[in-house]
Structures are given as C-alpha cells and as structure tokens.
Amino acid sequence: MEATLTKRDGQVSMDKSFDFLCSQLRNGVYVVSIKRKTEPRTVSQNALMWMWFKCMEENTGTEKQDWHDYYCCKFLTRETAFGGRRYTVVGGTSGMNTVQMSNFMNKVQADAATEWGITLPLPADRYYQEFVQHYRYR
C-alpha cells in the first residue's frame, strides 16, 4: 500500500487515512519509510537538451544523436554483474526525473564549455530566447 503525504505550512496531510492503511496489513512486522516524491523530466527539459545537441552539431559537425549518446556514455554508465561477468551498462535520459535531468544537463553544459568551447544557455540567460528561436525546429 502507498499513500501520498503532503506538507504545507507545517501541516502534514495524507491522501489515505493511516488507520485504513493499517487495516489492510496482515499480521507481522513492518518498516515504514518516507521518501520525497519526484516528477518525471519535463518536456521543456527534454526540448532544451535536444536544442543543445543541435547547437553542438552545428558547431562541430557531429550529429546531435551522437552527442546524446556520447554524454549518456560519459555521465550515465554503471557497472553490473551477470553470471560472474562484469558489464558496463549505459543509461538514458527518458526515465529520469526532473532532478536527475537537471544534474545531467548541468554536467553536459559544463563539459561543452570546458572541453568543446561551446556555451549552452539556460532559460535565465541573456540570449536564451534568441537561442530558442534559432534551434527550436532544427
């Protein structure tokens, strides 16, 4: 069973009664843990990422999909083991939440500037709207 807790102005509310939740349990010992709910990456985050990769494509000649794959390999790899053998697994961006996507994009932005000399703007930046107008439909 799951319930959603919301805290606003110091007050906590739940979408289900705690008594009801407990009434649904079988006899036994349980552990209750509370974790912060996250939202999936936003459409605007995804759109900005692809505009960044299109900008990098135009600056380097390397296709935007290749930039996506490059950064996934660089920042989203992990090691795992199957049958006694070790494997490197490359993750993607589609299953990320908003915090994970922000962290990924911060790493991409920093790497593009330091390694490739390409400035990738954020919405708060001065020329962001011009950037969007240029790369939106490319």
Describe this protein's structure.
The chain has 138 residues and is α+β, with helices and mostly antiparallel strands. The chain has a domain at 43-135. 46% of the residues lie in helices and 14% in strands. Strands 1-2 form a two-stranded antiparallel sheet. A two-stranded antiparallel ribbon has the order 3-4. Helix 2 (43-60) packs across helix 3 (64-75) and helix 2 (43-60) packs parallel to helix 4. The chain is flat and about 65 Å long. The N and C termini lie far apart (46 Å). The model has no long low-confidence stretch (mean pLDDT 94).
N→C terminal distance: 46 Å
Strand count:
4
Strand adjacency order, main sheet: 1-2
SSE string, helices as H and strands as E: EEHHHEEHH
**Radius of gyration (Å):** 21 Å
- Report the biggest beta sheet as strand number plus sense, adding barrel if it closes: 2 strands, antiparallel
How much strand?
Answer: 5-15%
**Helix content, binned percent:** 40-55%
Poorly predicted tracts of residues: none
Please report the number of helical segments.
Answer: 5
Main structural class: alpha+beta
Large-scale geometry: flat
Average pLDDT confidence is 94
